[in-house]
Amino acid sequence: MIIRWGMDFLELGQQIRQLRQQQGITQQLLAEHLQISRVTLNSIETGRAGDVGIRKVMKVLDYLGFELSIREKSPLPTLEELHAAVLAERHRVNKF
User: Mean pLDDT, the chain, as a whole number?
Assistant: First the structure.
């Protein structure tokens, strides 16, 4: 998993939820295995994790077989950034 600078908690949470669901793991099971509440896990997955410590996020990622890492940002846009720009331009053009 690549965590980009500027990635917000909602985007990170959505990726965590997707990874968990792809592995067929319920929130309840994951929470029990990590000894955190299901409410805490739900807060992470829904982007309301501002009050949840980074250690808990890293613990969830580790359980799912991923890690949080920092890398230098490329001067080139990501595919997601290019896609968002194309959609924004289409929306701008279609308004007129």
Answer: 83
